[in-house]
Amino acid sequence: PPAMKRNGHGILPPWLKALAALGTAMLAHPSARAANYYVSPTGNDSNAGTLAAPFATMMRAQTAASPGDTVYLRGGTYTLTNADITNTDSNYAYVNYLDRSGTTGHPITYAAYPGEKPVFDFSNVKPDALRVCAFYVKGSNLSFSDFEIVGVQITIATVHTQSECIRVEGSDNTFERLKMHDGMGIGIYI
Fold first, then answer.
1. Half-sphere exposure of 27 (CA within 13 A, CB side)
2. What values do phi and psi take at 67, rounded to 5?
3. Cα gap 80→91, rounded to integer Å
4. Cβ neighbours for 49, distance < 8 A, ≥ 6 positions apart
5. Could you say which DSSP state residue 106 is in?
6. CA distance 149 to 73
7. Closest C-alpha to 144, from 71, 68, 62
8. What is d(CA 71, CA 50) in angstroms, rounded to the nearest whole number?
9. Please, how many CA atoms are within 13 Å of residue 15, restricted to the half-sphere of its CB?
10. Which element (helix H / strand E) includes 21?
11. pLDDT tens, 129-149?
């Protein structure tokens, strides 16, 4: 029709332009392309992080995750040792050093797989002369829910020592329905 022509070239009707713009915006929006990754006590960090081939550690999942993505933690016990320490400084041994951030409205989510109970056992993490930090949350816009942290040890026998299940230095993070027990560490230290 003549209303759809300008200078002899076809143009889109307004409703179709709006629909095309919405489609483009959805493709550019992080939640439109959000991915799911999976971690399991029986996984392997050389796997693809899929439900059928999960990663073994949250640290490996962090390297794959982007804002808006969800890392599902499969049920079972994750038994950690000194070999799982990923970073240290003069005071701390950090096991899970989570420094990758989500964005406002599009956090990176670490959550129990629906209907399952992941338990992270730090009883065997006993570094010499260092405090233990099971989860160091340095990143921002992260979300954690529905898993347990047990057995965090205090490994220094002098006064004024502490270990932590979760140490938070990032901002705009959420923590829901987490259980921290049967250890010596502070629950959440902000």
1. 6
2. -50, 135
3. 20
4. 37, 38, 39, 55, 60, 61, 64
5. B
6. 13
7. 71
8. 10
9. 0
10. helix 14-28
11. 999 999 999 999 999 999 999
Among 158, 183, 83, 91, smallest CA distance to 125 is for 83
Task: Report d(CA 1, CA 98) in Å as an integer.
Answer: 58
Distance separating the N- and C-terminal Cα atoms of the chain: 64
The model's pTM: 0.82
Positive or negative, the CA dihedral 148, 176, 163, 55 is positive
Question: d(Cα 137, Cα 58) in Å, to the nearest integer?
Answer: 12
Q: How far apart are CA 83 and CA 105, in angstroms?
A: 35
Residues in the chain with pLDDT < 70? Answer: 1-32, 159-160
The radius of gyration computed from the CA coordinates of the chain, to the nearest angstrom, equals: 22
- What tens digit of pLDDT does each residue of 32-50 get? 579 999 999 999 999 999 9
Say how many C-beta atoms besides its own lie within 10 A of residue 8's C-beta.
5
Q: Which residues contact 188 (CB under 8 A, 6 or more apart)?
A: 164, 165, 166, 168, 175, 180
Q: Two tokens at 130? A: 């260092």
Which residue stretches of 8-153 are H helix? 14-28, 58-64
Tokens for 89, please give them.
Answer: 């400084």
